[in-house]
Amino acid sequence: MPRPVKCRRICSLPKCSSFTPSFPQSVVTEQKKPVILFVDEYETIRLMDYEGKTQEFCAVQMEVSRTTVTAIYMTARQKIAQSLVEGRSLIIQGGNIKECPMACCCRKNPHFSKKELHMKLAITYKDGSVFQHFG
After folding, report:
1. Residue 3 to residue 72: CA distance in whole angstroms
2. To bridge 35 with a disulfide, which of 56, 73, 83, 130 should be the other Cys (CB 3.0-4.6 Å)?
3. Which is higher by pLDDT, 40 or 118?
4. In a 3-state reduction of DSSP, which class is residue 39?
5. Considering only CA atoms, which of 78, 79, 105, 118 is closest in space to residue 12?
């Protein structure tokens, strides 16, 4: 059985969700099926190409591995190239995503990462007080 797909964290949904090519009126075009770019693919393009971040930063931001980011990025670039070369519409939608609850902090502080969001402490106790042998 395949491993379940992990949700990818995004900062926010794109402001514009579709792009359509414009052809001169003299060119007769046939209706072609649009290219679907998933929101997580859009997020990798935004982080790596638009903001100039590294794959490592992108992986931490999206809460996935670097190899996953590489695969998402390559798929996204291929879809964008297909849309441009073949003159097909590009629609940004879907994907296995979750919006970042701290999106406002991510945008204000570019060095903000999920590692700064949570800290877990494990403390042993016995009979309601801290146990002297920890570890």
Report:
1. 17
2. 83
3. 40
4. helix
5. 105
**Separation between Cα atoms, residue 52 and residue 4, nearest integer Å:** 30
Radius of gyration for the alpha carbons in the chain, expressed in angstroms and rounded? 21
pLDDT in tens, 33-75: 999 999 999 999 999 999 999 999 988 888 888 998 999 999 9
DSSP states of 59-102 as a string? HHHHTS-HHHHHHHHHHHHHHHHHHHHHT--EEE---SEEE-TT
Contact indicator for 60, 9 with CB cutoff of 8 Å: no
Query: 26's torsion region: left (phi>0), alpha (psi -120 to 50) or beta?
Result: alpha
